[in-house]
Sequence to fold (425 residues):
Amino acid sequence: MNPILSHSGAQELDQKDPLRRFRDEFLMPQTDGITDVYFVGNSLGLQPRRIAEQLQTVLDRWHRSGVHGHFDGEPAWMNLPEIVSTAMAGIVGALPHEVVVMNTLTVNLHLMMATFYQPTAGRHKILIEEHAFPSDHQAVASHLQMRSQSPEQSMVIVKPAAGEATISAEHVIDTIRRHQDSLALILLPGVQYYTGQVFDMPRITAVARELNIPIGFDLAHAAGNIPLQLHDWDMDFACWCTYKYMNSGPGALGGCFIHERHATNQDLPRLAGWWGHERSTRFQMRPEFVPSVSAQGWQLSNPPILALAPIYASLQLFDEAEGIQSLRSKWRRMDGYFRELLAQQLGDRVRILTPNSPIECGCQLSLEVHHEGNSGRQTYERLSNCSVHTDWREPNVIRAAPVPLYNSFEDIWRFVDSLATCLDA
Ligand SMILES: *Cc1c(COP(=O)(O)O)cnc(C)c1O
Fold:
């Protein structure tokens, strides 16, 4: 056996990991004094220690300054949304005025569809993928209904080719071209939540732009996970959450990208609210709406500072770790190690649905386990009983996501070792 695949080999890899100090920045769940294996950062990222302090600072200022906290102190609450949005823009490859952190993912999808879905008699269809996250499917169906379209006739659903788990870019592009005259909007995932497949966003977007069809991406599983260049890729909009790979806490605020060509267009239709009004005249309290010349122009309400504070703290960690590229380089080593260990220890008892290519794969591996007498679900439950946290997605997948900011090579070793034991149980 390759010595690196042993327990001590994993510990050696951790010793050499330039990012290893970041694990101590997080509160890890434990059982009987031993740190659990937490591979569910794709669902709810772990808690950065510094968030508690950040929240306490807000509470203290509220106590001492009351309403003046909006203007006093560093950062003044008044400025926090833009500060957080600018830091976020760095992570998704956007210009600062193209990003706003507000609401939650599904709410933002609705706001984006209110702007970008403008059906006409001929062009009224929305393209989504067959296994779109339920919320995305439901949001799309509800917009069709609100605009007097029928979800049955106006949803174009792209599916994997027969016998395949993932959807190739060629297949998506063929489907777009086939419906090019009737499509009014395309909504796709950046990373598919079930298989972990990364979609070829730049290539698909280029075709949509050539055909003049608005295109947006749901980046729930992409933001904080894979390198993104949203501005250069030229998509019209994107939405993501910050409680998965961005570690900002359960139900944390979402992020939203609106390409500069739209963000600076004050004539675009939108659902409006006073916080989207241009800042210099907002407090004149006049009824007419003059949107900010940026993505901030889609905000509705006075931003929740207690919800922005954890994101502010979490984004600092990405900055200190020198951004996604440095996380990604650790991820590449982890991914190679994970796949090699699975192959060596479990052979064909585990099938990896996630494509094995650095551009089509992020932190998550979606595993189908096969072993006589064991259903995948039972195996998943056994893993949970050994303090190994993964998640189960119907119909047949265990998702395991080692995250470079806080997971270690030893975690991967312990995961594979536990999985082997659970399969043999
Ligand atoms: C997690 C996730 C969501 C969640 O939406 P919320 O509005 O934040 O609850 C939506 N879409 C995808 C693809 C997701 O993975």
